Amino acid sequence: MRVPWVPREGIEREAHKVISEYGKMVGRNVAPPIPVEHIIEGFLGLRLCFEDLEEKFGQKGILGVLILDEGRVVINTQLAESGPEGRYCFTCSHEVGHWILHRHLIKKAAKRSGDQSAIICRLSDARKSHEWQADYFAACLLMPRKHVFEAFKTVCGERPLVLENENSKLGGTWVAVDPCVSNWHYIAQLVCNAGGFDNVSKEAMAIRMLELGLIVNTTEAKIGWGV
Ligand SMILES: [Zn+2]
Questions:
Q1: Do 135 and 164 have their domain in common?
Q2: Residues 52 and 159 in one domain
Q3: How far apart are the CA of 81 and the centre of ligand 1, in A?
Q4: Ligand 1 centre and the CA of 71: distance in Å?
Q5: Among 107, 124, 142, residue at a domain's last position
Q6: What tens digit of pLDDT does each residue of 128-158 get?
Q7: Domain range for residue 161?
Q8: Does 33 share its domain with 109?
Q9: Which residues place a Cβ less than 5 A from the ion ligand 1?
Q10: Per-residue pLDDT tens for 195-225?
């Protein structure tokens, strides 16, 4: 599916709008952890279901499906039952992103092709623009800028954290975390803890902080997500 280019700010605005309208519905200010399951069912009026999508479609790496005709968000059972909570909630939020940003386009494409109006989300499609947009929406929904900045400030202070070393130069046992690339997961976990981001993975938080300029990696080393 082809989608028009949308600036990051536009996607973030849409995610913010969902949180603020959901807040009006429940009558309180919404803060992390963002209750994405209730946003899907209670706010958007969609049904959240679980199926073995890899068996159903005979393909590996299917995370979720949004079926517009049936108003259903279907999450792969393996992800929902045995995957980390962060990945499960991110996939749910990703489907919300498709609903908000792409539902009209999905319907249009289905009308043209005669197929069911649905979108299948595969890991292998992560670089396609509609998938990137839904991922970015999910990050903005689960990790609202204001709350990330507040949590970061509590942990690291006012200034961005500059990672100048790939590995720690400190010897011995330290209570504080040395801000180097190989310690990215400690830093992300501390910020998650400080901001109540209980349904967000460390990877997602680190990516969000890099994107918001709160962490600056000046080394040649890439952050390894395998930790
Ligand atoms: Zn998707």
A1: no
A2: no
A3: 20
A4: 15
A5: 142
A6: 999 999 999 999 999 999 999 999 999 989 9
A7: 145-217
A8: yes
A9: 121, 131, 134
A10: 999 999 999 999 999 999 999 999 988 877 6
Residues 29 and 70 in one domain: yes
CA 203–ligand 1 middle distance (angstroms): 18
Domain tally, the chain: 2
Expressed in angstroms and rounded, the spacing between residue 5 Cα and the centre of ligand 1 is 16
- 133/172 same-domain check: no
Size of the chain, expressed as the number of residues it contains: 227
Cα of 173 vs centre of ligand 1, distance in Å, is 43
Minimal CA–CA distance to 17: which of 70, 114, 96, 79? 96
- Report the SS3 class of residue 34: coil
**Separation of 136 CA from ligand 1 center, angstroms?**
11
Strand runs labelled E in the chain: 47-51, 62-67, 72-76, 118-122, 161-163, 215-217
SS3 (DSSP) at 59: coil
Question: Are the CB atoms for 99 and 44 separated by under 8 Å?
Answer: yes
How many Å lie between the centroid of ligand 1 and the Cα of residue 33? 22
Domain stop point among 127, 142, 157 = 142
User: Is residue 75 one of the residues assigned to a domain?
Assistant: yes
